[in-house]
Design goal:
Layout (H helix, E strand, L loop, with lengths): L2 E6 L3 H12 L4 E5 L13 H6 L9 E3 L4 E2 L30 E2 L2 E2 L7 H14 L2 E2 L23 H12 L5 E2 L2 E2 L31 H9 L5 E5 L3 E6 L6 E6 L3 E2 L1 E6 L3 H10 L21 E2 L1 E8 L13 E3 L17 E4 L5 H7 L5 H9 L1 E8 L9 E3 L5 E3 L6 H18 L3 E6 L8 E2 L25 E3 L14 H20 L4
Parallel strand pairs: 1-2, 1-14, 2-10, 3-21, 14-24
Antiparallel strand pairs: 3-4, 5-6, 7-9, 8-17, 11-12, 12-13, 15-23, 16-19, 16-22, 17-18, 18-19, 20-21
């Protein structure tokens, strides 16, 4: 055996469980398809990141019609947390239970919020989380945050005040950033404008490399191999265990395998590992591997106030959940979603994403905008799925649910922003290539005929395979999934550690 545990992938799930198992004293081999993200000036350059896509994969996937597209994803140590906006919110208590939406009902989870709450606490501690407990009226019961909230800069504070005067309930956005507000001279985070969507050159972002992989590698029993694209999981002759992990570079074996390659790639790998014992793909007796792909309905929003220049540098500090549980309209008694401020759109960033817009127009628009991110929950659908084409390429079928709810959220937010004094409000919806919030392709549950994983994220069909990326989620909720992935990885890590302690890997 090459290790007690092989972990495939080093993002939010893989990086976190690597640290958890390392602290339990296990011998661990981490296989990462990519390499360390280069630390260079391009990390903070809008053109490099958003126009040239230097840090994103150059591979192409196909949509349901066979049309190729470039997914906005990358393969690095730390996974896509290297680029996330570091917004880390807990699922609401209601998100663990069936919830009625315009286009259907979400399934119940096999665990409750109470089961995950202590691991949310641990996750927030590991990932430098800032916030204010009790400031969000929809927030579940919780302990205080490890760090105080990021204070608003002037223009964001003005919006916060105006929303409160309208009877709404804005709150400080929980952020996973290593910021020392009382000691800025020695703070890793400097509140720069290149956080949301950019990698952090200062390693101040609470990402899976900084908070998971780096601490794990301080233990002598942990190894990380980069440039190891896993091609196949080979099962034993009886089909009950994963016997080896095959990569471009070689073959590895361990008592236990943890898959954390991301919801799309984990499903693709299991499908690519079909064999005589598992003809539909590994762990796929239920025919659920790859199915129920979900991704948030997301829109970026620019709100323009012509008479006021927005000099905010770090803008991503405000959120609102007044329409999370209910639209507020009697004729539409369904949830709409979540709203949070976006990292400040700068002239360079706007020009990188809209190169046909004249530079003077980009400069004026960006300097007079306050920017937002709107999220509505997608619903599970077995026809929204990951499959493999005959050539092995990934095909992603995605027809999101709750489009009307998202449109209503955008309309409602536009009306509110007009009342606050913003003259023009523009929205840009995200398309199939925006895969950052991918979940659901190997969902967990108690029934092996309708789920891929058991409640501790072990494959029903195999004795030594766990999946700890966002694949396990039966529903996506309307808040960022990162913290739930991290907390669940800690929960599964505790279970695996207990199994090894009793001699039962």
């Amino acid at each position: 055996m090459d290790a007690d545990v092989i972990i495939i992938g080093s993002g939010a799930g893989g990086g976190t469980i690597a640290r958890a198992l390392a602290e339990a004293g296990l011998n661990i081999l981490i296989l990462e398809r990519g390499d360390y993200l280069p630390r260079e000036w391009g990390n903070w350059d809008a053109r490099t990141v958003f126009a040239e896509h230097r840090y994103h994969t150059d591979e192409q996937w196909r949509d349901q019609d066979g049309k190729p597209f470039s997914p906005v994803t990358g393969y690095h140590v730390g996974g896509n947390t290297k680029f996330y906006g570091a917004a880390v919110l807990r699922r609401r208590e209601k998100d663990f239970h069936p919830r009625q939406h315009r286009d259907g009902v979400t399934p119940a989870w096999p665990i409750s919020y109470a089961d995950l709450a202590p691991f949310y606490d641990q996750a927030e501690g590991w990932y430098f989380t800032h916030g204010t407990a009790g400031s969000d009226p929809t927030e579940p019961p919780r302990n205080p945050y490890p760090y105080p909230p990021f204070p608003h800069e002037e223009d964001v504070a003005l919006v916060d005040k105006a929303l409160r005067e309208m009877g709404l309930h804005p709150f400080p956005l929980p952020l996973a950033l290593h910021r020392l507000e009382d000691d800025p001279q020695h703070s890793p985070c400097v509140r720069c404008p290149t956080c949301d969507g950019f990698p952090c050159m200062l390693h101040a972002k609470g990402d899976a490399e900084v908070c998971g992989i780096a601490p794990a590698l301080r233990h002598s029993g942990v190894r990380l191999l980069t440039g190891q694209r896993v091609r196949r999981l080979q099962s034993s002759s009886d089909g009950c265990r994963v016997e080896s992990v095959e990569t471009d570079q070689g073959r590895f074996s361990a008592h236990l395998v943890v898959l954390a390659a991301g919801a799309v790639n984990s499903a693709a790998l299991l499908l690519a590992s079909a064999n005589k014992q598992h003809p539909q793909g590994l762990a796929n007796r239920s025919d659920q591997v790859g199915r129920n792909y979900m991704c948030h309905l997301n829109s970026a929003c620019m709100a323009i106030k012509p008479g006021r220049e927005n000099r905010t540098i770090f803008q991503k500090t405000l959120a609102i959940n007044d329409f999370y549980n209910d639209s507020g309209d009697a004729d539409y008694p369904y949830p709409l979603g979540h709203i949070q401020s976006l990292g400040k759109i700068t002239p360079a960033l706007l020009h990188a994403q809209q190169p046909l817009l004249p530079i003077p127009a980009s400069a004026w628009t960006a300097s007079h905008s306050v920017d937002w991110w709107l999220t509505t929950e997608d619903l599970p659908d077995p026809d929204n799925r990951v499959t493999l084409d005959p050539d092995g390429d990934i095909r992603l079928y995605w027809n999101p649910k709750n489009r009307e709810s998202h449109q209503r959220l955008c309309r409602k937010w536009r009306q509110i922003l007009h009342q606050v004094g913003f003259f023009a409000v523009f929205f840009q919806p995200m398309d199939i290539s925006a895969t950052a919030h991918q979940v659901g392709t190997c969902r967990f549950g108690k029934d092996p005929t309708t789920s891929v994983l058991d409640p501790f994220c072990k494959a029903h069909d195999l004795d030594n395979l766990y999946v700890v990326d966002a694949s396990f989620m039966p529903s996506i909720s309307a808040v960022n999934p990162s913290l739930t992935i991290i907390a669940n990885a800690l929960r599964v890590g505790a279970q695996i550690s207990a199994c090894f302690a009793t001699g039962m890997p």
